[in-house]
Hints:
The complex is a heterodimer of chains A (191) and B (244).
Chain A: H1 8-16, H2 20-42, H3 45-62, H4 73-92, H5 117-135, H6 139-151, H7 155-162, H8 166-187
Helix pairs in contact in A: 1-2, 2-3, 2-4, 3-4, 5-8, 6-8, 7-8
Chain B: E1 2-4, E2 9-11, H1 12-23, H2 29-41, H3 46-61, H4 71-80, H5 90-137, E3 142-148, E4 155-160, E5 164-170, E6 180-187, E7 192-198, E8 205-210, E9 218-226, E10 238-243
Amino acid sequence: MEYAQLDDATLVTLVARRDEAALAVLYDRYSRLVYSVAMRIVGQRQLAEDITLDAFQKVWQAADTFRRERGRFVTWLISMTRHRAIDELRRLGVRPEGASVELSQGIDTGASREDSVEDVVWLAHKREAVRRALAGLPQPQREALELAYFCGLTQQEIAERLTTPLGTVKTRMRMGMQKLRRALEEADAVD
Amino acid sequence: MKENVEEATVTCEEVEELLPAYALGALGAGEAATVARHLARCFRHADSLDAYEAIGDGLAAAVRMVSPSPQLRTRLLRSVAAPPSTPLQGRRRSYVGWAVAAALAALVIAFGAWGLSLQRQIDNQAASRARFLELARRPDAHMVPLEAAEGSVAKGMLIYTDSEAAVWAVALPPLEGTEVFQCWWIDKDGERVSGGSFVAGEGPGIWFIPMPSNAEDFDGIGITLEPDGNSADPRGPRILSGDL
């Protein structure tokens, strides 16, 4: 069986049966994405590697709790990574740096050595749609979203940090998310 | 819907207003708990919540990609490697051994036929996927999202080079009788040239279609549902289309 050609959900099922080769393929497929998200949040290579390792160990330990009908594997993986990274930020008492996301260019799917069809299709679409949608947002809206997602700040914390009224931050976040939602739904031809 | 909870009263409309920030984890603890309680009892917001949470995936996918050290893979696989098994002693070992052997034999018999069938399916799927990925990795490959026609929920993507093309699609409508899906290359004057037909079952699929020799003359692709595989021009409804 060519594991590298199996879809994510099948691989997770195999991981739940303690198949180390399946875990290795998932790692090869998503380690760059996971590590990149972790790096974006914590900004330290060693810590980002620890977070990446932790995320895949959680996949190993909790694969049997993954339900494909509740969403994509990569959503689950990114969510675990992000929460762990933000927890680390808070534990360390690190004040998050500037929020601007450095967006990649070109059709880099984010998958590494062993792509899957789903990776190629899904990530290429998401990346392009988000890049276009973010670029179209007014800078204050984009800043509010990125401070929340990548720095784990609440609206109140964002308002304090930007010395902006809380109501303004709420409006910016809501409007920015609504615009991104519309943009993604329009572009979401393959998800 | 309006509900009374210990600390706060919240309506569906108010929850919809709060959902974007909730999905980003940007609400304070009190507001987040209020929304969570409402969501646990009211399922009207499931689609909205899914949509806002999907934005997070997109934000993650848009960051600049960097690679971890090669050693990290080794660390992971070492950390999950099974420890060597400890042999059991005497009668207990013998009993457990026979029990395991019997269970395995039963499993082999029960799942043997199913396993062979599954294996063939996986092999076929794997071959198509490998070819699709090979095409996608070519430096001259283009990726074109295929948009669903009105009334269709199908989704798809075309990958093509000067010499080869592949369609990935999902949620195509079920076929009946002799019906097929047919690809059409569309030139600048709106003329259609058949790109071949295919049948599809449930779930996502990949189909390879030949590129026309004068590929530069075409600037669109359409996929229609045809009554049979003999159409020289489109006779059925359009399901998917895209601009090259």
